[in-house]
Design brief:
single chain; 230 residues; mainly beta; 16 strands; 51% strand; globular
């Protein structure tokens, strides 16, 4: 199972982490915002195709956030977050870390640790069904904050999730549409009584993901993916 942060579905807050790692024939080296603020995410991959670093910036300023990914073979062990603004305090150490715990080939816990005092800020507990077709991710700090109820198809692809917030009882529903050859082509998001938001994904003839669109900004690319090869 490939796990990456929600950066690959830019524009969807509170999405589950179950997105495919390195979707497409190649790994993008950057994701560039096309509309509004010139946001950019630069990506680095190792020889095995695993994401090892992402750097977030607003051009032309330097990166304001950097994440590194620590792997043990195919298992993601931690995500380390570096904040350049806090470099004088932490030096070359991360400001925060996500510590991943696995069991039976599945993640079961994610703990968020601040390196200022080593305290746990938030955590996620992942409860899987026996057949692995569904799970509930409970997010908490000193109390439960939200629950994500997730469904996967027979090929292990995320197809549906319902995120319920305990603070106000609101929810967010996300549905995903795939092609038979594992290309993600649409994510549909519904929250409250507002209109449905559709995030579209455009692929080239080489099987590379090249752009994201949004239904509330018709006719334009919102994000474009860049590759080392043209």
């Amino acid at each position: 199972m490939g796990l990456i942060p929600t950066l690959f579905i830019l524009g969807i807050d509170g999405a589950p982490r179950l997105w495919p790692m390195g979707i497409g024939a190649s790994r993008p080296r950057a994701i560039q915002g096309v509309t509004g603020v010139p946001a950019r995410v630069e990506l680095e991959w190792d020889d095995a195709g695993r994401l090892i670093e992402s750097r977030f910036s607003i051009r032309p300023e330097p990166a304001w956030r950097r994440l590194t990914y620590v792997w043990r073979e195919e298992v993601l062990e931690r995500i380390r977050e570096f904040d350049p603004k806090l470099a004088e305090l932490f030096g070359d150490e991360p400001a925060t870390e996500e510590i991943w715990t696995w069991s039976g080939g599945r993640p079961v816990e994610v703990r968020n640790i601040t390196n200022e005092d080593g305290s746990e800020t938030t955590r996620e507990d992942w409860a899987w069904s026996d057949d692995g077709s569904s799970l509930t991710v409970t997010e908490s700090s000193d109390r439960v904050l939200a629950r994500n109820r997730v469904n996967l198809d027979a090929r292990g692809r995320l197809i549906h999730s319902v995120r319920e917030y305990t603070i106000d009882g609101s929810s967010k529903i996300i549905d995903l549409e795939w092609t038979p050859d594992d290309r993600l082509i649409a994510v549909r998001v519904r929250a409250g009584h507002g209109p449905e938001l559709v995030i579209g994904f455009r692929w080239d003839e080489r099987g590379r993901l090249i752009a994201q669109t949004r239904s509330d900004m018709p006719g334009v690319d919102v994000w474009q993916y860049e590759y080392d090869e043209p």
